[in-house]
Amino acid sequence: MRNTRVAGRWAVGATACAWLAAAGPACADGRGAALASISSPGNVLTVELTIELGRPSYRVLRFGEELIGRSRLGFDLRGARPLDHGFELERQTSHSVDETWEQPWGERRYVRNHYTELAARFTETSGERRFYEVVFRVYDDGVGFRYEIPAQPALADVVIDDELTEFAVVPVATAWWVPAGQPDAPNDLEILIHKSPLAELGTAHTPLTILTERGVHVAIHEAALVDYAAMRLARVDGQLLRAALAPDAAGWKVRRTTPFTTPWRTMQIADSAGQLYGSDLILNLNEPNKVGDVSWVRPGKFIGIWWDLHLENWSWAAGPRHGATTEHAKRYIDFAAKNGFSGVLVEGWNLGWEGEWFGHGESFSFTRPYPDFDLAAVAAYARAKGVHLIGHHETGGGVGHYEEELGAALDLYQRLGVDTVKTGYVAAARGITHTDAEGRVQLEWHDGQYMANHYLRVVTEAAKRHISIDSHEPIKDTGLRRTYPNWLTREGARGMEYNAWGQPVNPPEHETNLVFTRMLAGPFDFTPGIFALERTRACCRVKSTLAKQLALYVVLYSPLQMAADRIESYEANPAPFQFIKDVPTDWSETLVLNGEIGEYVTIVRRDRRSDDWYLGSISNEQGRLLAVSLGFLEPGRRYNAQIYRDGPHARWDTAPTDIEIEQREVGSSDTLPLRLAAGGGAAIRFVALPRAPGAARPR
Ligand code: NOJ
Q1: Residue 426: CB within 6 Å of ligand 1?
Q2: How far apart are CA 446 and CA 137, in angstroms?
Q3: Which is more confidently placed, 30 or 191?
Q4: What is residue 16's predicted lDDT score, i.e. its pLDDT?
Q5: 257: number of CA atoms within 13 Å, CB side?
Q6: CA separation for the pair 244, 204 (Å, rounded)
Q7: Which alpha helices (H) appear in 638-679, and where do they start and end?
């Protein structure tokens, strides 16, 4: 056993514990004493490993105070003894890394990956002496760890019935969470975000965001979910949470052949909500790009035959109100070309939308269009105008059927120059269908191992054809965009469409919740930009002001953003529409200037292709006055600030479209007051003016 020097500190090895054992029983099997420990580069977080009565566990300290108390590690296996007791720490190694890598697209161009790593091997003290490793990466703003199960005779074909990983949150905390495992939910990631004491949590999806009574913000999630079931979190007792893997129709949670690694279990930890959002932990724990040259992956903005479908003005199915006609599509292409949009989405172009397609995807064809939609002609028309069609594959959850057609469907799009496809999996939770080898129909959750593999299969098959994917009703995001940069964006929470359907519409705090929960996972195709906010359908409205709709383009990051409203709404409101035309979707820097979960947030981002900055600020149902320092702008440089803000009478419920637009010159030493109405927001474009003669470019 060796003790290893890590970032200027000595980690205590098992030999030290053996020596301590002579002093009394406390350390005889590691009880009470750390067998190994490692601290983050800036000595903010410390992870300690212990073995108590042969059971390996970890805990996390922040500035020396216990944040995550002793929490078990291990697995329940089918046909074998649980992999959780009877272990000793056989060896440990550690090292530190400080590197910077570049994203092809994203919230920021350069990402620093700075951590210390501790790899611990636990081996059974008797019997078959099975063993596994746990690798911890400790950052100043969080911790990730994963299990690595090496190949060995007694662990070859591994069936995991349960993962036993625990998170014992010590300080009393409040949680923001989405209930998981609700079979009746259309897609249970789309349930409104709950807020409750952590001690009242049920079973939750991740990211699960918690705020301790001392003001520490923590998000528990996972990174690099590959060939494994998604980790939900079940509350066992008090504030003790345990991994609850999504089940597989085959009756187990996960089946793998060794060697294999699990996804990373992650805890992002910060003093403020803004710092939590600023963490790059999830991306850092994913593997680098495996696709190779991705210059063909293009962020952008799109419009489409979409909102009229959700308003029930048009239909996906054939008939007098069919939306996806050649004529409608050409009109949208003309509008896109005129206003600088790169894409046009057409939903309902393919056969099979008649009747109840929700959960019954077997009737869809992914290659044959309706007679009133000339797919080849529309694609050629778009190409001639410099616009790309965005393809659409709604599966209705019929994943077995979709997989049979997938190759031909993607080939067709490739031939037509369709380089982005929006996929859909509208089906009840545990309503995904496929047929097994014996011809039996199997029902899967959207987030079990079977579907984790399916979503990635679609992404890798698309990459072979230089096609990017925008998954709706997806599996949650775990940062795989780093490894597969053509997985551009996804849904994975309650989007704009609920404001057309009701059941109920999204409350004004929804987006301020999203930033510090769902958005910690990655980009969201939320589809903002609704201008006709009142009476979307008879039941419904959008609980937002117009200025807030603009702000969402900055606040809710997606490399692919939709201008979701109908063309008519934009033609009627050219002045606010200008912001949607201007705002980019790819950034070189992102900063959160202020924010509280569910209350308000202000985010600024710098355009990847110019020196311009953009600001989005949103509030919940409460109006508020914020003062924003412009210190993020380049010192000494002047900017033309184009400000879109709530008008004096604006409120989401009585005057949502009251908006004021003004321009003024500003610099980095200025402070701007932002008056956000109830359910309101502000959006600002800062156009960089030419530098003064002789002024130095900042490095
Ligand atoms: C649900 C998606 O979120 C929505 O955007 C799409 O229009 C429908 N499914 C139909 O595919």
Answers
A1: yes
A2: 29
A3: 191
A4: 38
A5: 0
A6: 9
A7: none
Considering the chain, what is the average pLDDT of its residues? 94
pLDDT class of 182 with cuts at 50, 70, 90: confident
DSSP β-bridge partners for residue 97? 115
Catalytic hit among 107, 497, 511, 634: 497
The answer to whether 552 and 565 are in contact (CB under 8 A) is: no
Asked if 537 and 312 count as a contact pair (C-beta separation under 8 A), the reply is yes
CA-closest candidate to residue 38, choices 15, 20, 13, 57: 13
List, edge to edge, every strand of the sheet that includes 240-245.
Answer: 36-39, 45-52, 55-62, 65-72, 166-169, 240-245, 231-237, 203-204
Beta strand extents in 33-156 (DSSP E only): 36-39, 45-52, 55-62, 65-72, 75-77, 87-102, 110-124, 131-139, 142-149
Q: What are the tokens at 609? A: 């292709």
CB 276 within 8 A of CB 478: no
How many helices and strands in the chain, by DSSP H and E?
Answer: 13, 40
pLDDT above 50: residue 3: no
pLDDT at 32: 60
pLDDT tens-digit series, residues 514-540: 999 999 999 999 999 999 999 999 999
Dmax (CA) for the chain in angstroms is 86
324 Cβ below 6 A of ligand 1:
no
Chain segment 391-407, per-residue pLDDT in tens: 999 999 999 999 999 99
Q: Which candidate, 56, 138, 136, places its Cα nearest to that of 90?
A: 56
C-alpha 635/C-alpha 437 separation (Å) is 65
Catalytic, 497? Answer yes
Over 90: is that where the pLDDT of 360 sits?
Answer: no
Tokens of 432: 């995904």
Atom from ligand 1 closest to the CA of residue 527: 5
Say whether 677 sits in a helix, a strand or coil: coil
202 close to 235: Cβ distance less than 8 angstroms: yes
Q: Check pLDDT > 50 for residue 688.
A: yes
What residues form DSSP beta bridges with 687? 640
Would you state the pLDDT for residue 697?
Answer: 78
The per-residue pLDDT for 436 is 94
The torsion defined by the Cα of 537, 538, 540 and 542, in degrees rounded to 10, comes to 50
Q: Which of 350, 360, 472 to mutate to test the pocket of ligand 1 (most atoms within 8 A of CB)?
A: 472
Tokens of 212: 């301790």
Pocket test for ligand 1, best of 313, 347, 562 (most atoms within 8 A of CB): 347
Tell me how far apart the alpha carbons of residues 148 and 462 are, in angstroms, rounded to a whole number: 29
Q: Which of 82, 83, 21, 30 is nearest to 53 (CA)?
A: 30
Two tokens at 189? 């990631």
Residue pointed to by tokens 């994917």: 469
Q: Are 516 and 273 in contact (CB under 8 A)?
A: yes
Q: What gap in Å lies between CA 54 and CA 87, rounded to an integer? A: 5
Ligand 1 centroid to Cα of residue 472, in Å, is 7
Which has the closest alpha carbon to 594: 632, 643, 635? Answer: 632
Torsion, Cα 55 56 57 58, to 10 degrees, reads: 160
Residue partners of 412: CB distance under 8 A and separation at least 6:
366, 367
Ligand 1 site, residue 472, Cβ cutoff 6 A: yes
Separation of alpha carbons 624 and 43, rounded Å: 37
Q: pLDDT at position 22, please? A: 33
What is the rounded distance in angstroms from the CA atom of residue 102 to the CA atom of residue 85?
A: 42
Q: How far apart are CA 220 and CA 142, in angstroms?
A: 10
Q: In whole angstroms, what is the distance from residue 98 CA to residue 137 CA?
A: 12
pLDDT in tens, 274-325: 999 999 999 999 999 999 999 999 999 999 999 999 999 999 999 999 999 9
DSSP state of 299: -
Q: Which of 308, 314, 346, 426 to mutate to test the pocket of ligand 1 (most atoms within 8 A of CB)?
A: 426
- Cα R_g (the chain), whole angstroms: 26
